[in-house]
Amino acid sequence: MSDELITRAARDIVKAKKVVALTGAGMSVESDIAPFRGKGGIWEKYDPVEYAYIDTLRTNPAKTWILLSEMQREILKAQPNPGHLSLAELERLGFLSSIITQNVDGLHHEAGSKNIIEFHGNHRQAYCMECRKPIKSEEISLETLPPHCDCGGVLRPDVVFFGEAIPHEALTQSDQETRSCDVMLVVGTSAEVQPAASLPGVARSSGATIIEINIEPTSFTGYTSTYFIKGKSGEVLPKITDIIKNQSANLTS
Ligand code: OAD
Questions:
Q1: Which among 23, 72, 214 is the best mutation to test ligand 1's pocket, defined by most ligand atoms within 8 Å of the CB?
Q2: pLDDT tens digits, 18-42
Q3: How many domains does the chain have?
């Protein structure tokens, strides 16, 4: 992890008029939630084509719920890590405008962040596919799969499956945030899933500085990203936040 780049990031954030963060699964790895891609990733164990498409949920919900129940158990016991807490603190201090997250684990909420755009929904909420009645995931028994609503319909989490559209509001809000920021922090995303992966390019074209934080380079690195900080989000973000808290007056000069 480069101290020079950490200080540069702190300075860019303090000087910016508007900072937005785009976060991905890497953000929650230090909260013991598996990412999708790479070693130990969910897609290593479950082929997304077989398990994660909306058609499978409709035609064979018991199969999709094998994956969903595993995710639900992991998410419901997870706690925010220092990376989530740092983003919440930056918002509280007035240095972060919003978080656009691809994560469905709700950990940015748990950490205290307020302005969150959940691009792929939230796994802590579910609803019945028949009567649409909402239910909290923690109230769903996973003993028999798929879980059912009182009305007999199958329950589903309020997340975006492959083959489904991104919620309209999330799409328009994130587009506005992306086009109006002058710094975008891109944290723990593999840059592989559209349309979320196009946001940093849009921000860059609108003149924003793109600060990428990841344990390994992605297709953004060296192209879309203005600079790349190699490291864990739970270590890099607290360092940046500490510098901002302790030296913000010096950083603007
Ligand atoms: P991925 O699992 O594709 O990528 C996770 C990224 O996090 C990788 O680039 C890792 O190198 C990085 N990473 C891992 N641990 C890290 C750490 N401690 N600190 C920083 N970075 C770390 O996750 P996403 O890019 O979020 O969509 O995936 C995007 C979408 O693909 C997900 O929202 C999901 C999935 O299919 C849907 O389910 C619709």
A1: 214
A2: 999 999 999 999 999 999 998 889 9
A3: 2
